[in-house]
């Protein structure tokens, strides 16, 4: 790493003088205008009638030094919640916008879809340094404008890479903090070479011991870019890679079991009180059932130490060694070749070819599992320990083209995208504790217990236009057509028992979807005042898990959403204010049942009628040039009009319970953010407080099966020196997280069942709750040097 950093600095200095002379050939605003053409097809046009938050380069670059994944920066905007499995904001990270999960959030980089075509998610696990590579981010809440890739049902996140610097330079950074978390990185630009060529690159990685036991890991990314520019033409090739080997904790800290007689120490412990705070108080605040288990004393009770804390132990292999940790191992490489041509004062066009390769697997210890879970049988042996390795490989190819016409009255954008995906899912048993079973199934190599293939084609064509009626009024129209075909075949990782043995769940899915998505709206502007309104229709196809893991629920349907937005903003030199009201009317929305698959994925089902409605507020005031007070609030009501819950009934198999107007799971009614920003000369200090109200873990609106509200405060301080010699800038920073050491869970899961013969009717169900907690007080210091 040191060689890379020193080489970066040397290269930057060697070409600096020559590149600076040639940079005068171009104005940086010209290069920036060309980059805007690339992303204009997926971003909201000026004054477009949608709820939008924009994050600028300086904020993105500063955040990249924290080592946290980008969703934690996005969560400072209205209606966004973020959390990570290891509790520190690194590694596997998730987000929701207006209560809608990752698979309903469309994410693009320079217009290229980043969502996995099958899971429809972006797995924010190895993208912690993307902030340093980006020039801006636009978050559209709700349906927003037409975009490429999967339909936006909660929001759209449009990432735009930073324009390459016309001047030679470089940057190195290092951060270190709590739980031995450190982030190192560097980037450089050669500046303009031979009047037209720029080469730039970057490398960043984060290492951590993790807050939750067994979540240590390493993740990061690298980037290389080659750009050829002229005054009105640009060709850019980007290679962006991500990697990770991170410890997993998808089960969370499992607690809330309300019947000791039914407990299994593998999964958790009855604390008598149903909060994460109580888990902390009995020494299980970092408990990870993927890594450890509860022990028993001589009387058959859960063992405790002298301080009254429960005692845990590591899983052990048959050779006496201990299972290290459950790891997720994934590599991904994006290749994007884009060209943009500013034809004349009215016309511009851009095109991109892209290819992404991904490969990964996770490796997990499964204690005392039934052989039939993996389709095995052997001479009366019912259970043993296993290590399973589940993985996938992915190839995604695509082409995108956009054209833009703009004059004094019209701003029209049209284009299309084509994307083809093929993937393979596989699973191996790499360890079987029982020697006889191991010899039978693993004599020469790992035992492959499932394998399936999938393909998906996604075609999208759109046209959107803004018409400037006069100085005050603009109207907008947007029409998109999507065609999707998804096929998967082979053997899945679930087994069914028949008289002659166990058989894999067979996959034979071939579904086609045709969606027409119109949008329309208006915008009124007068001085600092602006009002807008829009209505947008969107559709979304089921994801892979909706087909394979729907359990007792019926075959999944495509979703439909009509989104109504109405807003007002005011801007002056000192004061800024905005209010946005929305009503999102869903048909066949996929909602989370509160249950998890055996790898921590949240299971869902269609519900016929549901809605999300709310108000989003933003305000900021600058009483002095060096001081800003800012805040935002998202107040919402999220309901299912009619919901039939299929709940496990240990006496009768299953029971269906009907609910009228129940609250959607994982949809807090209140999300608040407040900021105090002091900025004077080279000093910047920011205080941030975040409040998230109660979240129900299933759709029954039962407080026993919910997460309490939480309020957390963070602070950051930085000081910038400008020596103006070999080092242009030196930035020293400190970040303080969860200053008041709040013990809270930002997410979780629940399992509940009816067991009337055991005293658990519907009003007193047996249940277990898994908490996904965030760490208490942590801090990190960082240093950045720019050349």
From TrEMBL:
Residues 45-156 form the TonB-dependent receptor plug domain. It holds the Pfam family TonB_dep_Rec_b-barrel. It is a multi-pass membrane protein. SUPFAM superfamilies: Porins (SSF56935). It comes from the Bacteria. The keyword Transport applies. Keywords: Cell outer membrane, Membrane, Receptor, Signal, TonB box, Transmembrane, Transmembrane beta strand, Transport. Residues 287-739 form the TonB-dependent receptor-like beta-barrel domain. Transmembrane segments: none annotated. Its main location: membrane. One of its GO terms (molecular function) is siderophore uptake transmembrane transporter activity. GO terms for cellular component: cell outer membrane. It is found in: Cell outer membrane. GO terms for biological process: siderophore transmembrane transport. PROSITE patterns: TONB_DEPENDENT_REC_3. The keyword Membrane applies. PANTHER family: HEMOGLOBIN AND HEMOGLOBIN-HAPTOGLOBIN-BINDING PROTEIN 1-RELATED, TONB-DEPENDENT OUTER MEMBRANE RECEPTOR. Belongs to the TonB-dependent receptor family. This is Iron complex outermembrane recepter protein. The lineage of its organism: Bacteria, Pseudomonadati, Bacteroidota, Bacteroidia, Bacteroidales.
């Amino acid at each position: 790493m040191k060689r890379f950093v020193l080489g970066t600095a040397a290269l930057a200095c060697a070409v600096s003088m020559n590149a600076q002379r040639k940079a005068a050939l171009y104005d940086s605003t010209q290069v920036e205008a060309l980059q805007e053409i690339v992303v204009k097809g997926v971003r909201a046009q000026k004054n477009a009638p949608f709820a939008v938050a924009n994050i600028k380069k300086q904020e993105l670059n500063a955040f990249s030094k924290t080592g946290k994944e980008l969703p934690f920066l996005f969560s400072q905007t209205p209606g966004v919640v973020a959390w990570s499995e290891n509790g520190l904001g690194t590694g596997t990270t998730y987000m929701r916008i207006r209560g809608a999960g990752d698979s309903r959030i469309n994410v693009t980089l320079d217009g290229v879809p980043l969502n996995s075509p099958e899971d429809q998610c972006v797995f924010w696990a190895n993208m912690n340094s993307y902030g340093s590579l980006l020039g801006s981010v636009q978050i559209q809440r709700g349906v927003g404008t037409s975009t490429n890739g999967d339909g936006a049902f909660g929001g759209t996140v449009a990432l735009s890479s930073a324009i390459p610097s016309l001047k030679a330079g470089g940057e190195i950074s290092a951060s270190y903090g709590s739980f031995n978390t450190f982030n190192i990185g560097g980037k450089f630009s050669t500046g303009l070479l031979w009047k037209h060529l720029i080469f730039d690159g970057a490398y960043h990685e984060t290492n951590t011991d993790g807050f939750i036991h067994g979540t240590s890991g390493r993740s990061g990314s690298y980037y290389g870019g080659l750009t050829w520019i002229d005054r009105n033409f640009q060709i850019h090739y980007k290679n962006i890679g991500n990697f990770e080997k991170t410890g997993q904790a998808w089960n969370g800290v499992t607690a809330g079991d309300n019947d000791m007689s039914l407990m299994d120490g593998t999964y958790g412990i009855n604390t008598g009180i149903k909060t994460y705070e109580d888990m902390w108080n009995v020494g299980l605040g970092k408990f990870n059932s993927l890594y450890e288990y509860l022990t028993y004393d001589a009387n058959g009770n859960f063992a405790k130490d002298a301080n009254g804390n429960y005692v845990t132990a590591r899983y052990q292999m048959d050779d006496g060694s201990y299972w290290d940790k459950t790891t997720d191992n994934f590599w991904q490489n994006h290749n994007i070749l884009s060209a943009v041509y500013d034809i004349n004062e009215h016309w511009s066009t851009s095109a991109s070819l892209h290819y992404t390769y991904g490969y990964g697997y996770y490796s997990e210890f499964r204690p005392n599992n039934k052989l039939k879970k993996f389709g095995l049988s052997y001479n009366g042996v019912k259970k043993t320990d296993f290590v399973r390795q589940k993985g996938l490989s992915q190839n995604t190819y695509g082409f995108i083209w956009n054209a833009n016409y703009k004059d004094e009255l019209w701003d029209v954008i049209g284009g299309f995208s084509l994307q083809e995906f093929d993937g393979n899912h596989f699973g191996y048993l790499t360890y079987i504790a029982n020697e006889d079973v191991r010899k039978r199934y693993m004599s020469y190599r790992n035992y492959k217990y499932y394998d399936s293939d999938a393909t998906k084609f996604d075609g999208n064509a759109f046209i959107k236009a803004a018409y400037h009626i006069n100085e005050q009024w603009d109207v907008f129209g947007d029409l998109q057509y999507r065609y999707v075909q998804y096929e998967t075949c082979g053997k899945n990782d679930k087994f069914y028992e028949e008289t002659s043995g166990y058989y894999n769940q067979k996959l034979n899915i071939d579904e086609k979807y045709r969606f027409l998505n119109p949008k329309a709206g208006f915008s009124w502007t007068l001085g600092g005042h602006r009002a807008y309104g829009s209505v947008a229709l969107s559709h979304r196809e089921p994801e892979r898990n909706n087909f394979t893991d729907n359990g007792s629920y019926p075959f999944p349907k495509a979703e439909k959403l009509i989104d109504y937005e109405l807003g007002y903003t005011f801007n002056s030199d000192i004061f800024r204010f905005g209010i946005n009201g929305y009503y999102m009317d869903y048909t066949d929305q996929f909602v989370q049942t509160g249950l998890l698959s055996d790898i921590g994925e949240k299971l869902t089902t269609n519900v016929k009628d549901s809605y999300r409605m709310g108000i989003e507020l933003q305000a900021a005031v600058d009483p002095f040039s060096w001081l800003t007070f800012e805040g935002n609030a998202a107040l919402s009501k999220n309901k299912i009009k009619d919901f039939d819950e299929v709940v496990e009934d240990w006496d009768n198999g299953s029971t269906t319970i009907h609910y009228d107007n129940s609250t959607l799971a994982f949809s807090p009614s209140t999300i608040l953010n407040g900021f105090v920003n002091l900025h004077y000369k080279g000093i910047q200090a920011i205080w941030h407080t975040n409040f998230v109200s109660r979240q129900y873990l299933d759709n029954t609106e039962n407080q026993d099966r919910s997460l309490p509200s939480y309020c957390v405060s963070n602070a950051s301080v930085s000081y910038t020196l400008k020596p103006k010699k070999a080092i242009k800038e030196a930035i020293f920073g400190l970040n303080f997280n969860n200053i008041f050491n709040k013990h809270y869970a930002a997410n979780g899961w629940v399992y509940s069942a009816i067991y009337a013969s055991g005293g658990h009717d519907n009003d007193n169900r047996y249940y277990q709750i898994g908490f996904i907690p965030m760490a208490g007080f942590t801090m990190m210091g960082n240093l950045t040097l720019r050349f």
